[in-house]
Every structure is written in C-alpha cells, then in structure tokens.
TrEMBL record, chain A:
Domain named MaoC-like: residues: 6-108
Entry's family note: Belongs to the enoyl-CoA hydratase/isomerase family.
InterPro entries, alphabetized: Fatty_acid_synthase, HotDog_dom_sf, MaoC-like_dom
Name of the protein in its database record: MaoC family dehydratase
Domain of life: Bacteria
UniProtKB/TrEMBL annotation, chain B:
Residues in the signal sequence: none
PANTHER family, A to Z: HYDROXYACYL-THIOESTER DEHYDRATASE TYPE 2, MITOCHONDRIAL, HYDROXYACYL-THIOESTER DEHYDRATASE TYPE 2, MITOCHONDRIAL-RELATED
Span of domain FAS1-like dehydratase: 6-137
Domain of life of the source: Bacteria
Protein name according to UniProt: UPF0336 protein HC031_10390
Family according to the record: Belongs to the UPF0336 family.
Natural source organism: Planosporangium thailandense
Pfam families: FAS1_DH_region
Length: 133, 148
C-alpha cells in the first residue's frame, strides 16, 4: 500500500431482510430499524439502517482490501445521514471507497473511508488505521 | 433540559462478563458480510496465529452497547432514550475479540456538551478480559435531541 492508493469502490445492497438479520445478530432491536410506523412517528422518512451496520459494511470493504480480518488498529466514523431502506426487493445501495492518506510511526496505513447512499455521504470523518504487510 | 456536566469523569462498576461464543461470531459475521474463514473456521483462524475465531471489528459494540445501559439508564443522569441518536463511534484495538473471551466492560462518561438545544454525551468503554488483559477501547457519542 502506498499513499494515494484507492480501494475500488465496493457496492453493498441493503434490504429490510439485512436489517432484520443485523438486528438479531447485534441485539439492537430499536424499532426504527424495522417498523415504518415507529420510524415515521419519530420524524424519519421511513425505516433506516443501523448506523453500526453501515459502519460494519464499510469496515468489511476495508478488511477485504487488507486481506487480514485482524488488521484494524483503529476505526472511527461519524453518522452524518441515515440510510433509508425501502420495503421492497431492491432495498438501497451503500457504496464504500477508501484511500491511503499516510502511515503512522509504526508503519500502519491511515485510510480515509467514504460511504454514500444515493450519492450522499452517510459516514463522515470515517478513518481506519490498519496493520499492513 | 441540559444534562449535568458534573457527570463527566464518572466511572461505573465493571459489568458481569460476556462470554464470546463461536456461533455468535459466525452469526454476526454472516450478518455483516464478513466472509473471511477466520470468522467461521477455528482451524483457519489458528493457522493465522489466532487462538480461536476472530470477531469482525465492530463486534465489540454488541458487548459495549449493553454495558453502556449503565449510563443511558442512570436515573441520576436522566437521558431520555427515546431522543437518543448515535452520533460518532470509534474503536481502538489492543487485539481482536476472539471466541472464548470472557469480556468485562468499564464504562465512563468522557464528555458532556450542549449545543443548539441538543446534548452530546461521549461514553468510553474499556473492554478487557476477566483476567485484566486489555482488548479494545470503545467510544460512542450519543446525541440527545432537544424537545421541539
């Protein structure tokens, strides 16, 4: 990996079924992630993905690039915009990219990650430090 | 109503341990599309030098989310959970979480600020094994949306 290297953007399709599966696996059963009735009642356009699900997908794109499931030293994001997931077969798409911005003193790669849905950023200040080589 | 900033620095008692099971790691890995064999096959994980299955990097949140209920549900602090939105999330790993780990969490209120009628609470959770081996530090910033 070198400074400026880019991860080929990775597209994840996200459907309601994925959210239900993530809810069960993570234990986060907040109804805004499965009930349109509750989601709209609290002012959302509809059911939204768990922020932690989007963070996990972006993390997977980076780890697949690194080729080592234990490579992450640090990983942080800001949830800037909800990922709205319609109740149909297509769901929505989250596109994840990353670029190498530099290296730490220990030689770990510093990545800046982008995640968009419908062309809009859903993660901000998304950065990971990963062990390389 | 703003949250009491004197809660900054408050540390809560260690949580009862969470035992990380292989099937939970497999289930979580499948849910987030983590396909590396080290998440599902103990032999593959050992071949890479790990003691057992490797949990995906955001897995610790499963453990810390439950632990941070100590703070979120602390009546003295008085967070209205129905108004809470997840703002930021950060992990700093000493090592990955492995199947068989018995993890305990120590939660602390790291920061409280108020801006534009909203409160921002940053929690820090030190996740370690029962034997005291540090595993990961987890920060969550929660936004408590103001009324109206």
């Amino acid at each position: 990996m070198e400074i400026g290297d880019k991860l080929t953007p990775h597209t994840f399709r996200v459907t309601r079924a994925d959210l239900v599966r993530y809810a069960g696996a993570s234990g986060d059963f907040n109804p805004i992630h499965w009930s349109d009735r509750i989601a709209t009642k609290v002012g959302l356009p509809g059911v939204i993905a768990h922020g932690m699900y989007t963070m996990a997908l972006a993390g997977q794109a980076v780890l697949a690039w690194a080729g080592d499931p234990a490579a992450v030293v640090e990983y942080g994001v800001r949830f800037t915009k909800p990922v709205v997931v319609p109740d149909d077969d297509e769901g929505t798409e989250v596109v994840v990219g990353a670029v190498v911005k530099g290296f730490t003193e220990q030689g770990h790669a510093q990545l800046e990650i982008t995640a968009t849905c419908g062309g809009e950023k859903v993660l901000g200040q998304a950065r990971a430090v990963i062990r390389v080589g | 109503m703003s949250l009491d900033p004197s809660f900054v620095g408050r540390t809560y008692p260690p949580t009862p341990s969470y035992e990380v099971g292989r099937e939970k790691i497999r289930e979580f890995a499948a849910a987030v599309g983590a396909v590396h064999a080290a998440h599902t096959d103990p032999a593959a994980a050992r071949a890479l030098g790990h003691p057992d299955l490797v949990a995906p990097p955001t897995f610790p949140f499963v453990v810390t989310m439950k632990a941070s209920e100590q703070i979120i549900a602390d009546p003295a602090l008085g967070i209205d959970y129905s108004r809470v939105v997840h703002g930021d999330q950060r992990f700093r790993y000493t090592r990955p979480v492995y199947a068989g780990d018995r993890l305990t969490c120590v939660c602390a209120v790291e920061d409280i600020t108020s801006r534009g009628g909203h409160d921002f609470v940053t929690t820090r959770t030190e996740v370690s094994t029962e034997d005291g081996e540090p595993v990961v530090t987890v920060w969550s910033k929660l936004v408590v949306r103001g009324e109206g």
